[in-house]
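Page header: ASSEMBLY MODEL / three components / 899 residues total.
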Amino acid sequence: MTPTKQAPSAERAPIALDVSSLRKEYRVRGAGRHVTLTAVDDVSFQIRPGETLALVGESGSGKSTIARCVTRLVEPTAGSVHIDGKPIIGISARQLSASYSDLQMVFQDPTSSLDPRMTVAATLDEPLRLHTRLDKEGRRARVAQLLADVELDESYLDRRPRQLSGGQRQRLSIARALAAEPKVILLDEPTASLDVSVRGQIIRLLKRLQVEHGLAYLFISHDLGVVRQMSDRVMVMYLGGIVEQGSTEEVFENPVHPYTKALLSAAPVVEYGREHDRLRLTGEIPSPMKVPAGCRLVGRCPIAEAACALKRPDLMLVTETHAVACPVSAPDAAPVLAVPVP
Amino acid sequence: MTAPTIGLPRLIRPSRTRLGAAGRSWALWTGASLLALLILTAIVATFWTPYPPTASGVGLLQDAPSLAHPFGTDGLGSDVLSRTMAAAKTDVSITVLVVLMALVVGTVWGSLAGFFGGAFDYITMRILELLNSFPSLLLAVLVIAVAGSGIANVIFVVAVLPLPDYVRLARAEIRSKKEYQFAEAARLVGRGPFGVLFAHLVPNSLRPLLTYASVNASYVASTVGALGFLGLGIQPGSAEWGSMIAQGQDAILSGQWWISGFPGLAIFLLAAAFHLISDAIADLRDQGSAA
Amino acid sequence: MSAALLEVDGFTGGFENQPGRIDPVLHGVSFSVPAGSSTAIVGESGSGKSITALSIMGLAPGRFRRTAGSIRYAGQDLTAMTEPELRSIRGREISIVFQDARSSLNPVFTVGTQIADVCRTNRGVTRREARKLTLEMLDLVRVPESRRRMDQYPHEFSGGMAQRAMLAMALISQPKLLILDEPTTGLDVTIQADVLDLIVDIKAETGMTTCLITHDLGVVAETCDRVVVMRGGEVKEIGSCEQIINAPTDPYTQQLVADSRMVENR
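Prediction written out in full:
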């Protein structure tokens, strides 16, 4: 079933999620002719067990498309995805269904991602029936354990999603994702539809589950406060490409790319009388059909030089774990193909 | 290609009078009791009727309702009550069978077309257009005229007539729901395409289909009667409400209303039962998610 | 700070979901919006902040019933007014900007036409003057290339640009009070920051009073000077922005500030 088995690296923990040169293009019909729209442009990253990589960007950045390509909810145009060394792309539909025991996803809106007709018990029973060989009793015990894991009361077993609060629904979808004991969970804006008080609870829950189960998280969010709290490393995306990548500490404390700076300084902070030191970009994010040929930020960037419009910048290392795609901000950095995983 | 569902909403919700909670339960209650009564009659008639339904001369010819013959007798001296009861077997079972067939076949066919799309969907739509280009009752008459009358042919024809509506409705429901996130989530749970379709999407699309099925049932009940009336349905010997009406039609003019009247009332009650039920279902909020 | 421009006093009401039975949603909501202030009403979902704001505009949904209390604007009781009287205030003295700007715009008319229409009904100007005024308004809300963009349709506007257009429309009548109902929710952070900057700048220029409805304390901290905290249809705490953020007294407010700050208590 596994044609190529990656040799686990000798001293470090193995890679849980390995995404390499992932690319997604859409053919769009615009004014009679076909235009190719690149939603995700050769993105590579790796996540170790127990680690959280955050994917940050605004609308049109391609961050959600990455999650959908990794799970093959949409078929990527090119690239490879491996979970624990096992390929996800290029396998049959049946094998893919089986692979979902290792790879799960929690959606932004639990209201629409839960089947409205299924009770809590039925929702959690379904993955157990498909991925485990537990008998009825065993599954019932496992469902109870899952509920306890996400701190949902057992009295909710017969309720349907509509009878649960937003936070409870998200707990249920997290429990569903946990059911088959996956190695990797993609979290697509899991707190965006929740109130702040509930948001904190869900974040704490996700962190606890990560430690207990050694889960690797790909955390997709536009909420920088949550990202800072949640993640070990951060990848900043703009118009389908990575502009900056590094440890959470490095990216938040010492952002290098002008887009990262603009993004961080634009986020509202709960602090009275904060001195504004905003880095402003001019204009708005261009249409994904009109991405500049050189650096994607050309036209909006305050520090752009003539050369920026000509060649798309590669990622360059500013520290051992911090890379940025901006030769103007980091003139002495060395280009790399992929940032080494710490 | 947009889903051609124009005209369907009118069929699904025959009367858009908003029944209140009380009205809704009244409609459901009355409809369901009527239907239960008719089904019970059909079951009883299998084992017992006051007189043998096919025997002639059990009473006087065209005798008015009396204690001995509560529904009167017909032109051959058969007991109308016994014949009406026996006919319930035929009419109720044909109606239920026909609707179930059309519902199941239409739902599966339409769901598959809506979910998988492509060539199968294209061919489906062309077949539906072809079927729709014939006036439906004319088609029924033609098929029976060619293939001959008989229960099997009647069931087949009456079931095929509304099939395009079921297919369209199921197809449109599935197409609108297949991009829902719970369908994607079901794929990630490990369901294959058929699992996603039949375990998640179809159950969430059943309500409009069931509503339509009960509207359709009242139509089927009267169509079976109409075909019988035209002599195209069941063999004249066996009891069937439509053919009973036809037998009594001349007698109405001379004042013997009971020969046609009671089977006519029976058809009306069966159709009304389904109509009331459909009204109630159409008004219910999505049951699966209601408290 | 001068006298209150808007005073909500003991405002109580609920939804009549079934005839004769009212499910309460607001319980004696009282707060004031001083003239010239930028007041924020902060709360999570179900706090009653939106229904309060809509009631000020007389735009509460039809099944909402006021059972007690009043809303006074410049001394006049809005709740006692007839619809025509209310209309003379709504959109002239008080304007509102909603969350989803793009669905507030009519897709079949150009943005310029829609703004010009408001100019003509509100200011009684001629068609030509309306077009000129529209251009000025679009410049005021910093829509780039306003001359070209005024002839575009709503679908050609991004969410941020559409919100600017809605702001332009709300400002035409030179309102004394501008209600902003989650004006930047759903916008990207960089766009949100631009729109908030714009609101702060326009307020500074015109001296109008603003009332911002939001769930986001970060947005409040950046733009407001007074804060009303609501929860479950009740006012929990009222104070200056500095006090609410730095020294909240109500336990719920304390929790809300802590939750919103997550980074600090890591």
